[in-house]
Amino acid sequence: MTQPQRIVILTGAGVSAESGLGTFRDAGGLWAQYDLEDVATPEGFARDPGLVHAFYNARRENCLAAAPNAAHRALARLQAAWPDHVTLITQNIDDLHERAGASAVVHMHGELLRARCAACGACWDAPVRMDPGDACPACGARATRPDVVWFGEIPRHMERIEAALERAELFVSIGTSGTVYPAAGFVALARAAGARCLELNLEPSATAAGFDEARQGPASALVPAWVETLLG
Ligand code: NAD
Prior knowledge:
CATH topology of the largest domain: Rossmann fold
CATH architecture of the largest domain: 3-Layer(aba) Sandwich
Strand content: 15-25%
Number of strands: 9
Order of helices and strands: EHHHHHEHEEEEHEHEEH
Number of domains: 2
Bound molecules: nicotinamide-adenine-dinucleotide
Structural class: alpha/beta
CATH class of the largest domain: Alpha Beta
Helix content: 25-40%
């Protein structure tokens, strides 16, 4: 086995695509049936909370029916082998990294399986189906929402993420299109900090030119192969 390196991994929708959870770009998928402005912005939620809950209820059901794939499992294996050296950040709101065995996953866009009260800030495990009429278990307000980060809201854990990027020796971006900021800017931060940067994606992302190396293929093949070369 080679010496552990300080690795920061960023995953996006592409790592869960082969588990049956659609990416933004999948034709005919859940995202294609809705307008982003309607279902993934605070303004959309204020206009029609029932529509937004219906969208996330459908995503939650899909998530619960899905299973982790070989890419999630390989990342969990790497983290278990080098526990103090691997920071796993995801833009995904599913829990497939955790179900594959990963821990301390940094969910920068929140979690589909958690609910939050917009009135008092309390958080709890989301029921499979949420409804605008649900009362907050802490304060009773009918202001419950999925605990996810919408467009126009501030991603979570940014201080911790930036600190990890500044110390990274290797930055690896997996299954993300490089179009949603701030995550799309992580490669530039990692490069500036002196990290080697590797992209694993089905096709070159919008930021592929910023990486030292970009490999194309399905995550379920590329990720286990990459982990195997590290761990042997
Ligand atoms: P995206 O849809 O913009 O891009 C996905 C990328 O994955 C594309 O570049 C595509 O070529 C690649 N890809 C598709 N199938 C792949 C596969 N089998 N193997 C490897 N790569 C594959 O997704 P993104 O960059 O994560 O976009 C950011 C936003 O999408 C985030 O806000 C995220 O929360 C949201 N999102 C999350 C989920 C989820 O939680 N599972 C699903 C859809 C969208």
